[in-house]
Amino acid sequence: MPVLAISCGDPCGIGTEVVLGALATLRPRRFAAVVIGDRALIPARIARAQPRALPPLRPGELVAVEASELGRDDRRPGRPGLPAGRAQLAAIDAALELVLAGGADAIVTAPVSKEAISRAAPSIGFRGHTEYLAKRSGAGPIAMMFHGPRLNVALATTHLPLAAVPHALTTARIVEVGRLLNRAMRSLFGVRRPRIGVCALNPHAGEGGLLGGEEIELVAPAVDELGAVGRFVGPLPADAAFRQAATGRIDAVVALYHDQATVPVKLLDFGRSVNLTLGLPFLRTSVDHGVAYDIAGKNRADPTSMRAAIRLAAKISSERRDFAGM
Questions:
Q1: Domain 1-139+279-326, what fold?
Q2: What is the DSSP letter of 290?
Q3: Are residues 254 and 154 in contact, defined by beta-carbon separation less than 8 angstroms?
Q4: Is residue 141 within 8 Å of residue 178, measured between CB atoms?
Q5: Which residues, other chains included, contact 159 with Cβ-Cβ below 8 Å and sequence gap of 6+?
Q6: How does pLDDT run across 11-39, given as a tens digit for each residue?
Q7: All structural domains of the chain with their residue ranges
Q8: Exposed e or buried b for every residue in 76-89, given b needs 16+ CB within 10 A?
Q9: Which pLDDT tens digit goes with each residue over 82-110?
Q10: Rg (alpha carbons) of the chain, rounded to whole number
Q11: Domain spanning 150-268: which superfamily?
């Protein structure tokens, strides 16, 4: 039976609400959950324990781990201060320590505020769960992936200013992400011979160098190299790549920067897709949305994406126990 460590994210956002809402609707539960967050936001009816003293859990059991105790003003919806930033980081760290110690099989994360964590802990250079978990766990090459009903997408770069993307892209990095995505499609999602499109960076795939040379210099060599491990096509104009993915002509897409991936995902699969980190030594899933300060505390948050993230983590954890390189 898999045990999931679920971090509740920003106490000033919708994280705890979607976690508890998702767990309440997942019946029957064939997993146990360790819910990690602020004590006041987690119902008292859930048993509490210290992460290092967790007893063996039974299917469907919920245990709460207190990562922080905040004052009322510190958890005010939509207004994260330094204590809330520290609380978000503490929840991530508690979940990470639990899974690395073997007390959980996977981590499921609710959304955090990168700004709040960065202000509370400026020395760690926090840019998101993906980068932070990779650094803390000593992982090798990693990639952010979105898995949804219509689209499967992995990102070559993640949380960078757009102007920095061309300088961060390399042929080697595109190959790394392509390999991770190919392996995930086969091992995690059962596609035996996935056909994967690799996006271009520039409009119209650069028009033979007229609109930019990255396709000729970086992307095409990566596609050639990836041909040795799977069925890759490209460089494809991004609009064509996602149209082909949405209509089933290709199984997955390598996107080169954040919004190139997330715009189509949120148009076609929003609320139903799951964010995964490929390449960690454990499984990590998350929602496809942010902290949603505008509806925090109003009991309006939709737990569908969190439910999908928990369900996928439980399913994969039940089928696989070795996630290294996934």
A1: Isopropylmalate Dehydrogenase (3.40.718)
A2: -
A3: yes
A4: no
A5: 114, 127, 128, 130, 131, 258
A6: 999 999 999 999 999 988 899 999 999 88
A7: 1-139+279-326, 150-268
A8: bbeebbebbbbbbb
A9: 999 999 999 999 999 999 999 999 999 99
A10: 20
A11: Isopropylmalate Dehydrogenase (3.40.718.10)
